[in-house]
Amino acid sequence: MWLFGREFTDTIMLFSSSQIHFLSGQDSCDFLQHLKMPVSKAVGLDIVLHNLEKPDNGSLSMDQILNSVFAQYESNSVVMGHIAREKPEGKVLEEWYQKLHGSRLKLYDVSGGISELLSVKDASEIMYVKKAAYLTASVMRKYVVPKLENIVVDEKKVPHSKLMDLTEKVILSPTKINVKLKAGNVDICYPPIFQSGGKYDLRPGALSNDDDLYYDSGSLIVCAMGAKYSGYCSNVARTFLIDCSVEKCNAYKVLLKAHDAAIAALMPGSKASMSYQAAVDVVRGEAPDLLPFLTKSGGTGIGIEFRETCLSLNEKNNLILKEGMLFNVSLGFQNLLAKSSDEKIKEISLWLADTVLVCKEKPAVLTAFISKAEDDAFYSFDEEKIGSPSKAALKTERMAPLKVKPMLKSDMTLSLKENLRSSSRTPKEDLRRQLQSEILRKKANGTAVRSDGTNQNLLEGHGHFRALGELVAYKNASDFPRVDRLEIQVDKQNEAILLPIYGFMVPFHVCNVKKAEIRGDSKRSVYVSITFNVPNTVSSQDSGLQANLSLVFLKAVTFLSRDRKHAEEVVQSMKILQKGVLERAKRASLVSQEKLQLHDGLTRDRIQLLDLWIRPALSGRGRKVPGTLVAHVNGFQYTVSKSEKVDIMFGNIKHAFFQPAERDMITLLHFHLYNEIMVGNKKTRDVQFYIEVMDAVDSISLKRRSAWDPDEIEEEHRERARRREINRQFELFVRRVDSIWSKPRFNQLALQFETPLQKLGFNGVHGRATCFIAPSPSCLVQLIETPFLVTSLREVDIVCLERVSLGQKSFDMVFVFQDYTRDVIRIEVIPMTDLDKIKDWLNDCSLKYYESKLSLNWRKVLKTIMNDPESETNDRWEFLNPDASDSDSESSETEDDQYEPSDMETGSESEDEGSDNESVVNSGDDDGGSDEDDGGESWDEIERKARDADAEMGSESDSEDERQRRREKAKVKPRRASEPAPRGALQKRQRLS
């Protein structure tokens, strides 16, 4: 039972003419205590609360309730209404069930009356069902039918179960088929059903098996699905016949007429049995031999419940129909026998179902958007063009007479690709741009918080916190984000969580959450329990709560989730967000570590992990010996020997990670610290403890081993068992440490182990080698190769994606921090195939990103920004926009080319060589067109003088004095002032001047 957003389990309610009795636990009674006065004033009824103690099954309280009933009516025969369909679950309800049937009360089943009372829907309920029906029919028409046609045309082998999964995802994401409904309000009534190949089950509870879709000649494909909108159900079922015989086609025509007759009989004032009787009359008149195969019911009522059995359309139900009732009209022929030797088409079934609204004039078929006419249900193959019944030309057609309409496979494939390109890729990129615009707007409005390194005003000193009662998630209604789905969401930008309560998203500041956890061991459905800070349950520092003791506070809420992974991610994101807020608002960095307080209990009670290796490795003997990690009162201690110890205080841990062995051969715990500590003789902020789940080096024999070698199979089993055992030990250690961190003493630290999300990871170069990088809820990490990468996303200002252009196979990603004095972090050579995934992840993290075709000199960029503090946050990165990045990058490159170091000599060797080459080219060109009037010497004269000079230089045997005299004599005499110099020489002097 749910009341005011709160779940009451094991609660009994009894209504009498003057009282309402509640039998529930202490927490629920405390909550219901506030309703006594309002209920008494509103309806004049008294609420009587009976407290249910935990070890008690409530037997005495039940006797008190029954005695009060007998005393009130003073009669020996008291009639009590109850819902007989509800089966008792739990000790309390089972005891109550026995008390009722063992008393002298006359029990009467009122479930039918309640169903009839709620059968007529109001305008808002009808609108919800119409939206659900439109979504269901749209998925069938826009996705399922084209998907089946494509499978048959391309002769693909696709299992029914895979079609079920794909269709379910489309239902839960209406925008994929251009249906403008909020995904948060959408759900499925049951897993979509796909059946073929002779195995049919015409029930909504049937499952799609793992057999491949069968579409040979003479086969039938049955599809059924139901969608919910805001909790209200709809249903549709269709049958497709592929190149079937006249016998099967006639059976479908009879079913179609019977289905239409059953719908037409749903008129106000008529009986529910008349609908099914109309279908029976059609079958009896058209094909009496098919009557034994007709389903025994024509459908049921539909609404919040998918099947309202009290509103069944069968022969015995004399319920009078009223305007506003909703029905799921479902008819079919089950297990018809056909004349065929193929076992997969020898037994067939046909099924049609629609969601129908009873109206004043005629019934309205809400799922008529998907046709069930013969033209859209019958398919055949193009045998004239190919010569054999190939699926290359599949087309729906009119079966009287049976004709084949050819359609080329290339045409169908081309049109399908165009539809996909226009309907999926462009809207997705547009959605990314809209999200980025919203992120930029929030940054401009100041909602994005600076990191601790640049905005110390967020820190209020050691141990000083804001009152929790003063926390505000959204100052204005305009700041509230747009939400597509009614599910728990975490708004990291505004430090808030959004909870769906009574169809509305209600915001809470994350600091108001005391505890969030997951309950239940089921893999398919779990409970997400959230407890809030309320008066008298928090510390005395929270004066904002203590000052409002007279107000009503929400203490706890519990939600049921069918996706365990999503629930775990939401809870972990909530805790990580809370951790980030508390980091900024509750504490400052610790410069020196406190003293470790050792665990003084028994050894068997210690929380420890054995045979661990540490990175960075210890020096000396500790490098070769594994050690033990023990969780003490206020920190960890890693011990190799008496002299080799490493202490890590809880207060110095900024991020803690647990990564099981999945992609890699090690299971590890990683701690990223606020302040550096000494590990051996090294200073580090990252300390890691790990175990290798598989030997790094194996002995390799020259003999080739068989894949079926028993020894190798046994060895593989041992390795898998070892990996599971190591992961289990680490998980147990992590859970026990989390239980310590959840104590009030460590609430201000907000510590929580994070696990990197491998499915969002990508390959890139960080440091010296390519490594696998994966995001966690609050960081981007790489914990296998050294140097480690731990980037806190809350400290990032923007992300720049560089070298993103057409034709590139890879790109780079640069993280720019809010503290511009820090160096950027660059991840290089990321495959271009991961670009879309990274963009979506950045949007989910509310990080603004830009794209650039070139790489930037970030030291220059950050220096320029720091020298211009007056620039606004949304303007300072404007040059990174795609339209401006090209010109800016080119101008930057031009400045680098023109830059000349001041310590370089003017007459450098390279410049002289370039100048000489330029002079030679120019003088050669001039010489080709010169004459003797220019006054310059020709090449022949220059070469002759050079030979004469070489001859006059003498041989090596000449003395140095003689050679010097000959050099001076061989020199060319200076020109006269009026004699022009060669043009090449003139150009060279001009260049050096």
UniProtKB/TrEMBL annotation:
Residues 762-852 form the Histone chaperone RTT106/FACT complex subunit SPT16-like middle domain. It is found in: Nucleus; Chromosome. Pfam families: FACT-Spt16_Nlob, Peptidase_M24, PH_SPT16, Rttp106-like_middle, SPT16, SPT16_C. SUPFAM superfamilies: Creatinase/aminopeptidase. Residues 966-975 have a biased composition (Basic residues). The keyword Transcription regulation applies. Keywords: Chromosome, Coiled coil, DNA damage, DNA repair, DNA replication, Nucleus, Transcription, Transcription regulation. Residues 885-916, 924-940, 951-961 have a biased composition (Acidic residues). Residues 941-950 have a biased composition (Basic and acidic residues). PANTHER family: CDC68 RELATED, FACT COMPLEX SUBUNIT. This is FACT complex subunit. It comes from Urochloa decumbens.
